[in-house]
Design goal:
Chain A: One of its GO terms (molecular function) is ATP hydrolysis activity. Chain A: It is found in: Cell membrane. Chain A: It is a peripheral membrane protein. Chain A: One of its GO terms (cellular component) is plasma membrane. The complex is a heterodimer of chains A (251) and B (231). Chain A is of the alpha/beta class and 251 residues long. Chain A has a single domain, classed as P-loop containing nucleotide triphosphate hydrolases (Rossmann fold, 3-Layer(aba) Sandwich). Helix content of chain A is 40%, strand content 24%. Chain A contains 10 helices and 10 strands. Chain A has helices spanning 40-47, 73-82, 98-108, 114-127, 143-155, 173-188, 200-206, 224-229, 233-241, 244-250, and strands spanning 2-11, 14-24, 29-33, 55-59, 64-66, 83-86, 161-165, 192-196, 209-214, 217-222. The relative contact order of chain A is 0.16. Chain B has 231 residues and is mainly α. Chain B has a domain at 16-174: MetI-like fold. Chain B has 8 helices and no strands. Chain B has helices at residues 2-43, 50-72, 75-85, 95-121, 124-132, 137-167, 179-190, 193-222. In chain B, helix 1 (2-43) runs antiparallel to helix 2 (50-72), helix 1 crosses helix 4 (95-121) and helix 1 crosses helix 8 (193-222). The chains are: A alpha/beta (251), B mainly alpha (231). Chain A binds chain B through residues 48-50, 70, 77, 80-81, 83-85, 87, 89, 91-97, 104-105, 108-109, 137-140, 153, 157, and chain B through 48, 125-126, 128-135, 139, 143-144, 147-148, 151, 224-227.
Chain lengths: 251, 231
């Protein structure tokens, strides 16, 4: 389990995470929801040390990190080894082929043997339906295909947790579905995941736990059933605010 | 006319092969090394470790000073100081060495900014992705950022190289018998300034045209991964 305790993050004196504590159970899919600018991505990026909060504790059970203290290279390495990140704009390396995008980190960072790593990478590509694209460059593929490759890149590091920062926000609905199906499958297989998303249907179908963040605070931390079927007033507003039809009828 | 060209060409070509091309190649080689080092010193943020941070900031101050000096003064004056000036301070250099030092440091100063801007053009997203995969800064530079930066830096670096080839004519002023100096000497004998200087200009143009072809070749090679490039 990942536990975050009393995490505080400020940008230019403004608190974007306000003394926030939350657990992310292992083997489960936790979905983080909330309006834009609420601090969802900041929270997620704190887990992978892409963002350095001013204070708070990050607890992986066997490893603990105090954000207010200097972080050694070893500690940051160990924490990042447990997590892998999938970005909104996938951030594939354009100068490497699809296969190299997946294998370069396991080979250079984890010192895995080349041949074995490549075989594994090809299998991952098969699983996401992109087996024949191994030797292409990312620029030759669609956004949805690139995002599926970035998921393979994350999985190839054998992380305990896969962190996904709005993985489908930059995709059109058809491409989005290709990516969501893969994530749904991963979730079913019991891969620990933490997903920031704006897609409510997806959240409802994959989440084991929903965390609702607003203004750097956690307003809800419970099951999807409670979130969608017994929402508080604020959550009701949030859910209706993002549905096109409801928006029209209320005006 | 053809007779004059044919009789003076061997001397001109000898000067070109003996001085102009070696000066340009050697100076660009060292200039590029200086440029990469200078750009990296300015680009990389040192870690908070005091043993690394303070020496790094000193290096950065030196790098800034170096670029400032060589971009703020004329190349010809730099060559004069190195060749005619330094002996007064007890440093005697052969004309060729003095020229290589002057050209390398001058090109290095300009090219360092080219390389730094190419490094800056690689998005932060690439660094984020590399760091989450646990690449070190060095690994990220070598495998991800530099290969992308090289592609961006190639056209402006080619500018620097082509400029350098022509700037080697300034070496004539510190007693080097490079191509332009030889054309002057021949002119003094045959009184054909228009013909001789045009011939020199044409020979510089030939080298620079070949370099332009090389640039296009390298651009194609480093752009394989870019959409729309035929590879």
């Amino acid at each position: 389990m990942i536990s975050v305790k009393n995490i505080v993050k400020k940008y230019d004196g403004k608190e974007v995470l306000k003394d926030l504590s939350v657990d992310f159970p292992s083997g489960k899919t936790t979905v983080i929801l909330g309006p834009s600018g609420s601090g969802k991505s900041t929270l997620l990026r704190s887990l992978d040390l892409l963002v350095r909060p001013e204070s708070g504790i990050l607890d992986f059970g066997d490893i603990k990190l105090d954000y207010s203290q200097p972080v050694s290279k070893k500690l940051s390495f160990d924490i990042r080894k447990k997590t892998s990140m999938v970005f909104q704009n996938w951030n594939l390396f354009p100068n490497l082929t699809v296969l190299q995008n997946i294998t370069t980190a396991p080979i250079t960072v984890l010192k895995q043997p080349k041949q074995e790593t490549e075989e594994k990478a090809r299998k991952l590509l098969e699983q996401v339906g992109l087996g024949e694209y191994a030797d292409r460059f990312p620029s030759q593929l669609s956004g949805g295909q690139q995002q599926r490759i970035s998921i393979c890149r994350a999985l190839a590091m054998n992380p305990e947790y896969v962190l996904l920062d709005e993985p489908t926000s930059a995709l059109d609905p058809e491409l989005e579905t290709q990516v969501l199906l893969i994530l749904e499958e991963l979730s079913k297989m019991g891969q620990s995941m933490i997903i920031v998303t704006h897609n409510m249907e997806f959240a409802r179908s994959v989440a084991d736990k929903i965390v609702f963040v607003e203004d750097g605070d956690i307003l809800f931390d419970d099951t999807p059933d409670k979130f969608f079927n017994h929402p508080t007033t604020r959550i009701k507003d949030f859910l209706s605010g993002i549905t096109f039809n409801d928006e029209k009828t209320t005006k | 006319m053809w007779h004059i060209i044919i009789t003076s060409l061997p001397e001109m070509l000898t000067a070109m092969l003996q001085y102009t091309i070696p000066l340009a190649l050697v100076s660009f080689f060292f200039g590029l090394i200086l440029a990469v080092l200078t750009a990296l010193i300015k680009f990389i943020q040192p870690s908070e470790n005091k043993l690394i941070k303070y020496p790094w900031l000193v290096l950065r101050a030196i790098a800034n000073f170096y670029v400032w000096v060589f971009r703020s003064t004329p190349l010809l004056v730099q060559l004069f100081i190195i060749f005619f000036g330094l002996p007064s301070a007890g440093i005697q250099l052969s004309p060729f060495i003095a020229a290589v030092i002057g050209f390398s440091m001058n090109t290095g100063a300009y090219a360092s900014e080219t390389i730094r801007s190419a490094l800056l053009s690689v998005p932060q997203d690439q660094w984020d992705a590399a760091f989450t995969l646990n690449f070190t800064t060095k690994q990220t530079l070598m495998k991800i950022v530099l290969p992308q930066a090289v592609r961006i830096a190639l056209p402006p670096l080619s500018n620097s190289f082509i400029s350098l080839v022509k700037d080697t004519s300034l070496a004539s002023s510190i007693t080097i018998l490079e191509m332009f100096q030889v054309s002057q000497q021949i002119t003094a004998k045959n009184y054909q300034p228009l013909l001789m200087y045009t011939l020199a200009a044409a020979l510089y143009a030939v080298i620079c045209t070949l370099l332009t072809f090389l640039q296009h070749y390298l651009e194609r090679r480093t752009s394989k991964y870019v959409k729309g490039s035929e590879a």
